[in-house]
Amino acid sequence: MNFARSALLLAVVSTAAIAQPPGGAHHPPPLHEIVADRADELGLDDAVLAEIEDMFAENWDLHESLRAGLRTEHDAMREIMEADQPNRKRALNQVESIAAAELALHRHRISVELELRALLTPREWRALRPGSGR
């Protein structure tokens, strides 16, 4: 597997990184697209692929809601910090709000990954992971 592909898969599959505020420069394709693109290679039958697609669809609204919440918290911090004399207590409380939003999003991403892993065999999951030889 070339370095660029490994980096892309790492960014999508790995949930070890802390959630970043949305709106960055480039976002890799969603995990469900990677699974769909590699379904034949992984040997996924139509029933399993449909189950995976349903699982992602069921989780999409919550994922987007959590991302929007995180974006809102970052916007609030930006507003606090752009004041001529930022309120220290408000800023520090906002750090807590951002951390809570990041935790909720990270927890959701882990939950979705675990749901996906429950639908795949260990071999299929290993084939999706970075460094899998693709």
In whole angstroms, how far apart are the ends?
A: 4 Å
| Arithmetic mean pLDDT | 80
The class by helix and strand makeup works out as mainly alpha
Beta-strand residue percentage: under 5%
| CATH C-level class | Mainly Alpha
CATH fold group: Four Helix Bundle (Hemerythrin (Met), subunit A)
* Radius of gyration, CA atoms, in whole angstroms: 18 Å
User: Largest beta sheet, briefly?
Assistant: none
Note the overall shape: elongated
The domain tally reads 1
Q: Flag low-confidence runs.
A: 1-25
Tell me the number of helical segments per DSSP (H or I, 4 or more residues long): 6
Q: List SSEs in N-to-C order.
A: HHHHHH
Quaternary structure annotation: single chain
The CATH architecture term is Up-down Bundle
The helical percent reads over 70%
Briefly summarize what is shown.
The protein has 134 residues and is an all-alpha fold. It is built from six helices and no strands.
Record keyword descriptors for this entry.
134 residues; mainly alpha; Four Helix Bundle (Hemerythrin (Met), subunit A); 6 helices; 0% strand; elongated
Provide a descriptive summary of the structure in words.
With 134 residues, the protein is mainly alpha-helical. Helices cover 72% and strands 0% of the residues. The chain has a single domain, classed as Four Helix Bundle (Hemerythrin (Met), subunit A), CATH 1.20.120. It has 6 helices and no strands. It is elongated.
